[in-house]
């Protein structure tokens, strides 16, 4: 197998200012890992010529693959292509086919094309154009005896499209990774340090690696390496040790498994959300095909909505409050009467940072499940800020649905 060393360069002042989250690096790193190619170095630099030149000077010769993201647009700060061309001593040559493609795209959108966009039709000589059907800026590919260099737009949709359809096939042809093993165990209800403690006695064979991937409220454990048989042995051992907490394998989120199980079992789902404000519905509708099982939901933030749409009794709210076992139960049963789904789930709690008390602290959440002839309510106290409390509540609900379906 040819040796590969990959460097990723993310360009953009907006990344360094914190205005844009660098999801490109995490996504690309994960994709490369799944291909059996680990990232050796990643840097974020501003839209500045001296930084691009200095970074290229540092990385060329040390890495066999360099991937740029960002700086290919039509504005004055988009100088990536110009600086790369100058570094390799290449002239920028006008490609009319790129310009004609842009004209077609703007005509289809019924918009005039700014003259500034013409700069995107210039390509460094000896560079291969990677057609971008998701945007106007094409990707670029340049090869020497010891280097593959790629440049793609920073817009995540365009970057993912070009990486998947253009870059990935080139890398796999140049650096085949037969025998590479990568599998992930999804666990819930056990922390990173506790899993590590249980795994103390595992001896890793050569070329077998373990990575802990903590998520909000759960931990994923990845086994990977070029020693396929050794990886399989360690992975099987981990599954045995952690079987009590394992809920899945190779899932990005537990919502994906809910999606899969409900679809396979032809069952339906509905939600009444208070403190999560529609987050649970959002996490499911992010996936195509959720309409097969998700009937809908009610965001019952105000008590009046709980009363009028979910038939929560006024006496319940006055006696026990909106954040209570009694309210969660009536919300779930009112939802069931309205939607008649197989699973009718309610969520009511205090996400914070304010609104808590000694009796009902921030992070207290009640979740009601009305299914078949049973209504069950779970009481949990989640830690963290407002976002993490809401996400942990959503994932708890998903885990309970998975448990019920797997039974």
Description of the molecule:
By secondary structure, the chain is an alpha/beta fold. It has 3 domains: 6-174, 3-Layer(aba) Sandwich (Molybdenum Cofactor Biosythetic Enzyme, Chain A); 181-249, Alpha-Beta Plaits; 254-406, Maf protein, CATH 3.90.950. Helices cover 39% and strands 25% of the residues. It has helices spanning 13-16, 23-34, 49-59, 80-87, 96-108, 156-174, 192-198, 228-241, 254-265, 279-285, 303-310, 314-320, 325-339, 386-406; strands at 6-11, 39-45, 65-69, 92-94, 122-124, 128-130, 139-144, 147-152, 181-188, 209-215, 218-225, 246-249, 269-273, 294-299, 343-349, 364-371, 374-381. The protein has a 6-stranded mixed beta sheet, with helices on both faces. A hairpin with a 2-residue loop joins strand 16 and strand 17 (374-381). Helix 2 runs parallel beside helix 6 and helix 3 (49-59) crosses helix 4. It is globular and about 80 Å long. The mean pLDDT is 95.
């Amino acid at each position: 197998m040819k040796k590969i060393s990959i460097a990723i360069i993310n360009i953009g002042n907006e990344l360094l200012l914190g205005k844009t989250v660098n999801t490109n690096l995490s996504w690309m790193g994960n994709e490369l890992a799944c291909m059996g190619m680990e990232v050796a170095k990643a840097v974020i630099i501003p839209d500045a010529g001296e930084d691009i030149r200095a970074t290229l000077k540092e990385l060329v010769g040390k890495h066999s693959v360099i991937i740029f993201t960002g700086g290919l647009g039509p504005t004055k700060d988009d100088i990536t292509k110009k600086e790369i061309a100058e570094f390799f001593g290449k002239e920028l040559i006008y490609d009319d086919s790129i310009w004609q493609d842009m004209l077609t795209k703007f005509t289809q959108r019924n918009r005039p094309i700014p003259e500034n966009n013409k700069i995107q039709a210039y390509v460094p000589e000896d560079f291969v154009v990677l057609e971008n059907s998701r945007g106007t800026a094409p990707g670029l590919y340049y090869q020497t005896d010891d280097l593959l260099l790629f440049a793609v737009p920073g817009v995540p949709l365009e970057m993912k499209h070009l990486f998947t359809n253009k870059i990935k096939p080139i890398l796999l042809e140049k650096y085949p990774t037969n025998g590479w093993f990568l599998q992930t165990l999804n666990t819930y209800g056990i922390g990173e340090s506790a899993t590590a403690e249980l795994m103390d006695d595992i001896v890793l064979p050569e070329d077998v690696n373990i990575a802990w991937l903590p998520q909000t409220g759960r931990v994923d454990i990845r086994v990977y390496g070029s020693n396929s048989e050794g990886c399989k042995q360690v992975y099987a051992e981990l599954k045995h040790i952690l079987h009590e907490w394992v809920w899945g394998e190779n899932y990005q989120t537990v919502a994906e498994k809910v999606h899969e199980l409900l679809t396979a079992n032809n069952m339906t789902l509905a939600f009444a959300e208070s403190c999560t404000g529609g987050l649970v519905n959002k996490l499911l509708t992010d996936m195509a095909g959720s309409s097969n099982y998700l009937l809908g939901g009610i965001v019952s933030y105000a008590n009046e909505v709980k009363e009028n749409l979910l038939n929560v009794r006024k006496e319940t709210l006055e006696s026990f409050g909106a954040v209570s076992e009694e309210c969660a139960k009536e919300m779930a049963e009112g939802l069931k009467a309205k939607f008649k789904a197989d699973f009718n789930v309610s969520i009511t709690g205090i996400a914070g940072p304010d609104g808590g008390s000694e009796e009902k602290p921030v992070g207290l959440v009640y979740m009601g499940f009305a299914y078949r002839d049973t209504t069950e309510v779970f009481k949990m106290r989640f830690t963290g800020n407002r976002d993490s409390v809401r996400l942990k509540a959503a994932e708890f609900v998903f885990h309970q649905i998975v448990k019920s379906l797997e039974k």
